[in-house]
Write a structure and sequence with these properties.
Layout lengths: L1 E4 L4 H9 L17 E4 L7 H10 L3 E4 L5 H11 L8 E4 L2 E4 L1 H12 L12 H29 L11 H12 L12 H15 L9 H11 L2 H10 L29
Parallel strand pairs: 2-3
Antiparallel strand pairs: 1-3, 2-4, 4-5
Helix pairs in contact: 2-9, 5-7, 6-8
Length: about 260
């Protein structure tokens, strides 16, 4: 399936660039965007790049075989045989992988004043933390626990750090901030959606235990760009999903937590 997504209205783009501008700091102009082709697997991390492009109103081509994960992967493997993964993005004449790196590149070069806090702001460190936490700590722990718990159903939680503790870190942050990047929606929120969906959909954690995460997901999923992404990148819903665990492990004793101030 090939989709050519056109540039959205220039007034909307200009409005987005102007949002938050001050008299002291005019919006920075990004460099021209090369042709972008997103090689996609339905329901996987490549959705992040589709969502990003919809948020920015940037043109892109979306390549996948609808309802055929193996067929979509074959197209990726033909383009990138050594490291076939989704997303694989053709950026001009370059082949890129790693969703966080791709998003950073596109925003830094082509939308420098959008979807991330100002570098001098107090929010910027939090934004960077969750851009990396999504995969480096949260997704890594979730899939590690999932594989171990599929082999041997858990009877109790680890007293150290496991899936529940990693999601709790996100919950604690959302008690003090509306978004993972701070005051406003940012690419950190795009990064965090996939692993937090994994945590609850695969029954690694009890969703009812994390009301702030649930509220954040509801308002994030209501964003028009997210809904456009679903319509284009997941037209038949989630296909080929991993089986959920029959039960998540009960919470066990844990050392007292003191949430960080910021």
């Amino acid at each position: 399936m090939t989709m050519q997504i056109g540039r959205r209205g220039s007034l909307a783009v200009l409005a987005g660039l102007a949002f938050g501008a001050t008299a002291q700091a005019a919006p920075r102009k990004g460099s021209p965007l090369p042709d972008i082709t997103i090689y996609h697997l339905e329901g996987r991390r490549s959705e992040r790049i589709v969502w990003l492009m919809e948020e920015l109103g940037f043109p892109y081509k979306l390549e996948f075989k609808r309802g055929d994960l193996m067929g979509s992967m074959a197209a990726i493997r033909a383009l990138s045989p050594i490291v076939p993964m989704a997303p694989t993005v053709k950026y001009g004449d370059q082949i890129l992988v790693e969703s966080g790196a791709i998003m950073d590149l596109i925003v830094t070069r082509h939308a420098p004043d959008r979807l991330r806090p100002a570098e001098a702001s107090r929010d910027f460190p939090n934004h960077l933390v969750f851009m990396h936490y999504a995969e480096g700590s949260l997704a890594a722990r979730l899939f590690s626990d999932y594989r171990a718990w599929r082999a041997q159903p858990p009877k109790t939680r680890s007293p150290m750090v496991d899936s529940e503790a990693c999601v709790q870190f996100a919950e604690d942050h959302l008690t003090r901030h509306p978004w993972f990047g701070g005051a406003d929606f940012s690419t950190a929120d795009i990064m965090m959606m996939f692993p937090l969906n994994v945590a609850t959909s695969l029954n690694l954690v009890d969703a009812a235990q994390f009301p702030k995460v649930a509220a954040w997901k509801a308002k994030t999923e209501a964003r028009p760009a997210y809904q456009r992404m679903l319509a284009k990148a997941r037209p038949d819903g989630l296909i080929g999903a991993l089986p959920a665990l029959p039960a998540h492990a009960p919470s066990g004793p844990r050392a007292p937590r003191t949430p960080p101030a910021n």
